[in-house]
Input
Amino acid sequence: MSGLSLGVLVVEARETSGAMITAHLALEQNREVFANLGSILSPASRGTNCLIQEGARLVRDYANILEELHLTAVAHQIEMKEIISASDTKSLLLKHLSTEPTYIDEVCCSSDLSVSTVSSTLAMVELKGLVKQMGAEYRVRVE
Output
């Protein structure tokens, strides 16, 4: 599993557990190892606490992992997808697109939206697979 990943997160592990074996294999394969700090009194946390002591990255939430792996843009894209899904901007924009190529300027004029709003919304709906870019300035709606 460690060979298929960018990194390994160990949330809870005894000192001689399968999770610890996976973490050590990840280190041998030059993968990042992340660990969640546990109680010093819990036998189930001895492995993770040992990993942290040996240099594993301490993790408090998923953002720590994304930041360390330089994947913060992914979290931002997920947030933007949620925002756009909840907004009427996406719906309005899609009404102004068809299966025929359309210039972004035409969409701005017909929708009365700013260039920045149209560009960012188009980028988000393109990530969702609702729109496809055709050339430098053309966008078409995917049916």
